[in-house]
Every structure is written in structure tokens, then in C-alpha cells.
Amino acid sequence: MTVVAVLSMKGGVGKTTASLGLASAAWHRKLRTLVIDLDPQANATMSLDIRSAPFTSNDVLSDARPGVAVDAVLDSGWGENVKVIAAERSLENRSVELGRNSAQRLRTALATAPRHYDLVVIDCPPSLGELTRNALTAANQAIVVTEPTMYSVRGAAEALEAVDIVRNTTNPTLRTTALLVNRYRPEDRDHRLHLSELHQAHGELVFAKPLADCQGIPHAQRAGAPLHSWNSPGSREAADTFDDLLDFILPPPPPEQPMINIRRFFT
Amino acid sequence: MTSDERPQLRKAPDAGAHPTAAARVDDTILFGSTSDSVIKDKLVTLEVEIPKSLRKEARAQARRRGITMDALVAEALRARR
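Predict the joint structure of the above. Result:
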């Protein structure tokens, strides 16, 4: 059971792109996937082709009784394997602390629901407040998304610190899986410089394949379609990166049973 | 957990309200003071007959303040305690 929170302190760096890219890679492999949209902008909800939602993540966090999140799970427009808990703008009202155990509300509401999925992706808002704290408390992995620009590099460091804080307070099982660099242009000198800074500061944590700046991603998002169904050279390259990222976060398949050497019994 | 064992999800009292609405409803009215009180304080249905003009006025007020009718009535009743 992999529950991954995708976060960044800075807006517009590609959290939703990364969340949808992972969901698309899982869709391509026919994995049972749940996307939880915790961003009041509800962009992931829109790109997963949700027209109306009787219940949203706002209701889930407001109610927060054990197991209630199941009622908010919707079929996405991507097919039966990809489900969604949609977001809405009033989710912003949940970004403040709500009493004792405020950070545990999502985890409590989800209860055992994540066990029914191969992958749960939580798309966080561009802040490190209560919504992100809930996401990190419910997750077992965190992916920080950044761009190779000065402000984004600083935002990534803040997000990594937030993961450490949650690990030390509400969720000791949480681990930082990767720092994904988005919209990388290798021909840009500044991008190369900031990528090198990220490597120096965070070492192995920086995911080996940065995500290139490509038009196919927003086109697929606008069409409400998985990236892996989009046929352009740029989008195929981005889909490859998300395939690798999915391999990186999913547990390795169980080792195959050793074959019995039949010949041994007859010699 | 089966659907018989778990409680049914309820709409947030401020669902649909714009977060920048002039007066946000006090969270203690909606949720009580702690998350525990959300679990303990059960919501029930109150059915009353009131003049249509009063309902119209209340709806307008709730819309203006960006809160639901439920929250508005709860707030009024609490204020009279």
C-alpha cells in the first residue's frame, strides 16, 4: 500500500502535474489508484474529468469520523481503475487547525480505504499549512516538486523541512522519497546551475530524471486525459519519467519462487 | 470496515461558501472546540414552520455571510442559550 503526498511550498511548480503523471503511469499499468485532491484550486479534480461531486475532500476533513472518506470516492473520467476524492474552493476553510488531532483528520477518515488501492496520490495545496499536514500524516511517502529556479529551490528546502517536522510529530513512518525537478531545460544555464545546487544540497534525494518542459502535459491536462494516452514526442518522454518515478515509489514485486530443479531428483 | 459499520459522510456546514466571504462562520459553531466533539456532538434534523419572509431574510443573510442555513440557525439558537 503506497500513499504518496505530492507537495511544495511554492505554487505553480507542478504538484498537480506530478500527481496526475503518477496517476497516469498507474492507469497505464491498470493499477487501482485513488487521487485525493487537497488543493482548493481543484485542478486535479478538473483534469480527472469530474463534472460534479456530491462530496469532496472538504466534507471529508470537516466530518473526519473513521471511514467516512469512502463516501466521497468518485469514478474518474479515466476509467474504472482511477478513483478520485474531489476538491472544491471551500476546502480552503480547512487550512486552519481544527482542534486536537487536527492533522489526523484525513488519516482517520480514510481508515482502511488505502488498502483497496495499489497507489494513493494526495495532491497538496501550495502551502505547508493544515491541509498539507493532513496529507503528510496520512501518507507513507512524500515527493517534493520543484523547478530549477531560485525561489523554487528555496521552497523545496522548506517543504523537505515540513516532511521532517511531520515525521517527528504525527507520522514517524513517513519518508521523503524524491525531489522531482520539473520544467527543466538543459540548454538554460540557470537551470543547470540550480539543478547542480539541488544536487549539492539534497544529493541522492533529487530524482535522477528531471521532467522536461513540454507542451504535451498541459494539453493532456486540459483534455482531461491521462498523459500516457497523449501522443506527442514530449509527452512520451514525460510519461517515461513518470513510469520511472512510479517504479521508484512502488514496493518491489515479491521475489519469484525458486524453480525446483527436477533433474536433481533423478541424478 | 463495511458500510454498515461506518458512519455516513456529512456535508461540511460551509460547503460551497467562498473562503474570502466577508464573515466566515466561527469554526467552534460548526465543529465544537475539538475534533472529538465532532464525533460526539451528533447532528439532528430540526423541522420548523416559519413565515416565508423570515426564511427569505435568513437565506439572504446566510448567503451574504458565506455560511449555510444550518450554520445560521445553529448560531442563532446558541446565542439564545
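Residues 31-40 of chain B have pLDDT under 50 and may be disordered.
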